[in-house]
Amino acid sequence: MGYKVAVIGATGNVGREMLATLAARNFPADEVIALASEKSVGKEVSYGDDDVLKVQDLAKFDFRGVDIALSSPGGKVSAEFSPKAAAAGCVVIDNTSHWRMDPDVPLVVPEVNPHAIAGYKKKGIIANPNCSTIQMVVALKPLHELAGIKRVVVATYQSVSGAGKEGMDELFEQTRAIYVNDPVTPQKFTKQIAFNVIPHIDVFMDDGYTKEEWKMMVETKKILDPKIKVNATCVRVPVFIGHSEAITIECERDITAETAREALRAAPGVVVIDHREPGGYVSPVEVAGDDPVYVSRIREDATVENGLSFWCVSDNLRKGAALNAVQIAEVLVKDYLNK
Fold it and tell me: Model confidence over 287-313: pLDDT tens digits?
């Protein structure tokens, strides 16, 4: 007997990727339901290669009988509907930022802290971390086990798909406009994104960090270890899909490039491509559509004791969102729901 699964926000970038991932991984679903706002009702979305689902109205939907909801509709919508779904007996795996730091909601990356899923019973909600946090902690976990990470300094290079369809459209339209000498007017982003980089993602906080940077700091502590100190600078770059990160860590114990490389190669969800030659590393355009977190440019940092630097790349719509949510659902049905 399979499960009844709802995808909330099914017409968005992440929602469509969730549907594709469920189908590609043969998730044991007898029925999959696509939900979105009233304006999307009746639209069709793909579920795998052959099936098409008609979008239903989230506001009118009755979640009784639904086992799992994969949710990516935006924080305000999630704040209203995730508790309603949970109250009807549905376990919600939520991709928005709204529930991540709730102490009664587990924040989960299956390769890092799958045991935390057990906490879903408190509110019936499991939070999917921020995309940039997910790929970073997947790479950090084996290194933390190896040498005990004390401090992380990370600069991100985040694609426009992290800002949704509007972000992707803006990069495309601005690039076209520049080539034909049309005016460029930023709308989704604060400055021109085509042929530019913007050191600003999400709102600014009182201490000068942006909320995206704050998310990486606090989520890493909740998922991996509360003692780890994190300093993040998050930058939007003119790439359609794929987040990149330049990461430097300071550890408690000795760590070398070779021991780190071995630990990363053995880690679940990580692929190491690290050749010290031109092209011997991974770039975001190469990982679009792929599941793993790729690590390259592994080298020792001589400026601190027990320091290491590396390059980390992943598809932000897959491992950074949809895949991670589906992996949580897979652990949930295997170890907890047991239908």
Answer: 999 999 999 999 999 999 999 999 999
Residues 87-114: pLDDT tens digits? 999 999 999 999 999 999 999 999 999 9
| Whether the model pTM is above 0.70 | yes
CATH number of this structure's domain 132-316, picked from the four choices 2.40.420.20, 3.50.50.60, 3.30.360.10, 3.10.20.30: 3.30.360.10
Q: Is it the case that residue 339 has pLDDT exceeding 80?
A: no
Active site residues: 131, 243
Q: What is the pLDDT of residue 235?
A: 98
- Name the residue ranges covered by the structural domains of the chain: 3-129+321-337, 132-316
Question: What is 3-129+321-337's CATH number, 1.20.210.10, 3.40.50.720, 3.40.50.150, 3.20.20.10?
Answer: 3.40.50.720
Q: Tell me the per-residue pLDDT of 207-253, one tens digit each, with 9 for 90 and over.
A: 999 999 999 999 999 999 999 999 999 999 999 999 999 999 999 99
Residue type at 328 in one-letter notation: I
Q: 51-54 and 44-47 as β-strands: parallel, antiparallel, unpaired?
A: antiparallel
